[in-house]
Amino acid sequence: MVCDFYELTMSNGYFKKGLHKKKAYFDMFYRSTPDNGGFAIAAGLEQFIDYIEALRFTKYDIEFLRSKKIFDEGFLEYLANFKFSGDVYGVPEGTPIFPNEPILTIRAPIIEAQLIETFTLLALNHQSLIATKANRIVRAANGRAVFEFGSRRAQGADGAILGARAAYIGGCSGTACAVSEQIYGVPAGGTMAHSWVQMFDSEYEAFKTYCEIYPEDTTLLVDTYDTLRSGVPNAIKVFKEVLIPKGITNFNIRLDSGDIAYLSKKARKMLDDAGLKNCKIIASNSLDEHIIQSLLVQGAKVDAFGVGERLITSKSSPVFGGVYKLVAIEDEAGNITPKIKLSDNVTKITNPHFKKAYRLFDKNTNEAVADYICVHDETIDESKSLKLFDPNVVWKGKVLRNYTAKELLVPIFKDGVKVYNSPTVHEIKRYCKEQVSLLWDEVKRFENPHIYYVNLSEKLWDVKQELLKQQKGNSENNNNGINLGDK
Amino acid sequence: MVCDFYELTMSNGYFKKGLHKKKAYFDMFYRSTPDNGGFAIAAGLEQFIDYIEALRFTKYDIEFLRSKKIFDEGFLEYLANFKFSGDVYGVPEGTPIFPNEPILTIRAPIIEAQLIETFTLLALNHQSLIATKANRIVRAANGRAVFEFGSRRAQGADGAILGARAAYIGGCSGTACAVSEQIYGVPAGGTMAHSWVQMFDSEYEAFKTYCEIYPEDTTLLVDTYDTLRSGVPNAIKVFKEVLIPKGITNFNIRLDSGDIAYLSKKARKMLDDAGLKNCKIIASNSLDEHIIQSLLVQGAKVDAFGVGERLITSKSSPVFGGVYKLVAIEDEAGNITPKIKLSDNVTKITNPHFKKAYRLFDKNTNEAVADYICVHDETIDESKSLKLFDPNVVWKGKVLRNYTAKELLVPIFKDGVKVYNSPTVHEIKRYCKEQVSLLWDEVKRFENPHIYYVNLSEKLWDVKQELLKQQKGNSENNNNGINLGDK
């Protein structure tokens, strides 16, 4: 029942009109990358799969819908027996993705395809958003560990729990969110809040007690009262009194307020002077990719970062604008009719038809050079050169030779049955790192990234132009003599 | 188990040190208002209450924690029998709230108070964020209905479902999210997507079919192909052919792309010329309070708004920065010791002690003039004048006469038992509207709103100054001879 109400009204309409057995093709794709980035990271497929497998309407749901008094009894009965029976093709989680290429393609009877719209979008939009942001932050940290700390500022519990999962896929080393480990295996950890320090008569006593209980890889939060005059000196004292005598050398301090660049350098000096060169410094407090880059440029002595609200909400760009659009219908004989949506905003015009998508790699460098979207029955022959052209500026093009082509979407469901084995979250994280490494550096930079080429095949381009022409003709013959004014 | 891992490590530590029966006081408050607004709207209390009542650790949770190999068996046994036994005071949902005043105060044994930190924050932060944003958007719409349409762009399913609840509290008229009606009673509705129009051989046929199935209060989406050349003319034709003959006059069109100001005026003219003056125009597509204000300034002919991603994520300001801080501890004899957190950022210094908060209203105008935070054992005598002063600039002050004082926080739990009856979501929405109407217009404007006065009592101010002095002294005596450098 996590759906938009219009999916129910439309489905009831399809049912009443006997259209509900007609098969429709929907694509999910997105139009622009958060933070004006060069690419996004796909995530959320596993939750989509779980949803499709569990999707049923309970007696309670049917009662609720009946109470609205607009739904046909036959339709309610249909819902009571509902089970997804369609095919799904999807991009594996952790894959870099680009605007206007299909991330997910659904082929299913129209009602089934329509009813799953909202959850499908929200699952993939949310986690792709956070995985994309996490990947930016992790790249900014340049090899240093980044921990996800943002549960308390997440937009709801799912935002926290699945956000931690997506952050891990994007490259974070772990999370503070305990339940994300329990459910998804995302490594969770944490040590103390300011309240721990306040609960004791002194900061020294609070630190000492903590190190006695948790001697291994402990982290002391040093900014409750005064970082340099109290926190760091007390931490040094306790490390020397409690841990060093036991031969323990893996311990850390955390800076959570103030001028991190300044404080980290001062704290580093104090730790080094005390002979604690091994003590690591963790920084947190309103960090994101830009502040982390700036801290590193300033020579801040930070070994790891904890990132909260700016990651878990993707604060600077908190929406992943994935959409779900009808691209074709199929009659009972299996004939596919491509469909287009025009819109008054040119950028909102869709790519029609049941499609395939390839990523093309240069055989010499192994780098991804372009993606290539074609009609479902086209194939790429790697032994032949491939003509690429800009779908918006068609005279701009090039001929690609010596490449490999890899299909982006893989089968997920066939006739409602899952045919895909979800990798573990650790495998997805590794896959993501590897795939991002195959992108050009110019696509990865934060400022004005290079726009990666997403090309259409000639056949697909022709289908699109034909539909545009057709539809334009329809509209012009269709205004019923009403004066449209002068625009 | 929706908690940050450090809450578990700290709690284990308190347990081992025998501190777990010590009572602590925590305040939840926020530091700055999203979108630089003049006030926020409290929401999420009902979900906090449900959480506290349901809070248990299952066998599965205990097994998971045991597997981490850092928790004491006695502590795990304590968790297995965990039940919240504390007192809670909270601001009712729908109340306008201001920075640095308590929204929620917890008095409970330290472990109980610590373990609920993350969920408490995320529940109240999330819904307060969305209720606050919705209230801004509804105020911008100036009496026109605003519908929440954003589920697909929400940050997770809770973001969608509870976001719709919060948006309704903040003033929206309804939501597209079906399950929010089912669970929370938020009115849900919706009509058609572009896919409905695409499924038929023509837009005309799609519209006609829809109006036949749903003749009452129907809304046709007119931008699938060409708003003015195809969508509006087809809608007019269908309204006249199908609905007018049946005597039905409550129907609408929806514009979802293009230049809404221009298109709405043109569409209005076309509808009026066709004799359909009663047909309402609904607009959607990346709206927020600023775009709605601008559309109305431009004279757009829009009767209702559908708002998606910019509301459900509070896109322009997607974090509500509520925090949860220890403010006092209580010994077994019932003596309360106030606690403070200093921090290197002055704005992060907390207001110590177990406190009460009052809203003061001018008896003549009934307007809210200031909030007043005092120590728990202070009371306000309305028959006497009240001295107010700026807690940061103490020579700025005034004497208030002829006022009424209303306590902001009400008892929610007493000894772990709920003592509060949650109002319905409809009652909360009405309460919110009424309470916002008592605020000065200057506090409600979007640009540079007046900063509403949140004052401390003299007694509370003295407690805070005393703790600041004390703590500063501690830090200075505490640096163990380590060279701090020149800052």
Automatic annotation (TrEMBL), chains A, B:
It catalyses: 5-phospho-alpha-D-ribose 1-diphosphate + nicotinate + ATP + H2O = nicotinate beta-D-ribonucleotide + ADP + phosphate + diphosphate. It comes from the Bacteria. Pathway: Cofactor biosynthesis; NAD(+) biosynthesis; nicotinate D-ribonucleotide from nicotinate: step 1/1. One of its GO terms (molecular function) is nicotinamide phosphoribosyltransferase activity. Its EC number is 6.3.4.21. CDD domains: NAPRTase_A. Residues 355-464 form the Nicotinate phosphoribosyltransferase C-terminal domain. Residues 2-125 form the Nicotinate phosphoribosyltransferase N-terminal domain. SUPFAM superfamilies: Nicotinate/Quinolinate PRTase C-terminal domain-like (SSF51690), Nicotinate/Quinolinate PRTase N-terminal domain-like (SSF54675). Pfam families: NAPRTase_C, NAPRTase_N. Transiently phosphorylated on a His residue during the reaction cycle. Phosphorylation strongly increases the affinity for substrates and increases the rate of nicotinate D-ribonucleotide production. Dephosphorylation regenerates the low-affinity form of the enzyme, leading to product release. GO terms for cellular component: cytosol. Belongs to the NAPRTase family. PANTHER family: NICOTINATE PHOSPHORIBOSYLTRANSFERASE (PTHR11098:SF1). Catalyzes the first step in the biosynthesis of NAD from nicotinic acid, the ATP-dependent synthesis of beta-nicotinate D-ribonucleotide from nicotinate and 5-phospho-D-ribose 1-phosphate. This is Nicotinate phosphoribosyltransferase.
